[in-house]
Every structure is written in structure tokens, then in C-alpha cells.
Amino acid sequence: MKNLESTMAGTVFTVNVAVGEEVEAGQVVMVLESMKMEIPVEADTSGKVSEIKAQVGDFVNEGDVLVTFE
Predict the structure, then answer these.
(1) pTM for the full model?
(2) Is residue 21 part of a domain?
(3) Can you give the residue ranges of the Lipoyl-binding domain (predicted)?
(4) Which domain holds residue 32?
(5) Residues 6 or more apart from 14 whose CB is under 8 A from it?
């Protein structure tokens, strides 16, 4: 299992993947909004999404787990 963590505090603006989906390294899996800016969150590894820990509208802090990959 590999976790994708937030690199900053913000609100989840979009979730671009679903559980069970295969993703490639560099693919945008989520977009955060902070101070009216949209910040894409990219997968740092290829893999299958096993769990999505944050949903649209959730506030996340730096270091929070956003997505878990198998």
C-alpha cells in the first residue's frame, strides 16, 4: 500500500479518480483549492486506487492522506 499525502492545506475541489481505477504516475487524482487557487495533486506512482480518504468539500491539512494505492 502506498499513500498519497497532501502537500498543503486546502479544500478538496475535485476528485478525479474512483476506487478500483488504475492510475499512472503524474496523473492528476485530485484538485485542492487554497486562497482561490486550484492546485492539482498528481499521483507520484502508478497503481490501483484502493481507497479515497478525502471527498469534495473536505478540508485537508498538509500531510493528510488523500488516496491509498495498492
Answers:
(1) 0.91
(2) yes
(3) 1-70
(4) 10-45
(5) 30, 31, 56
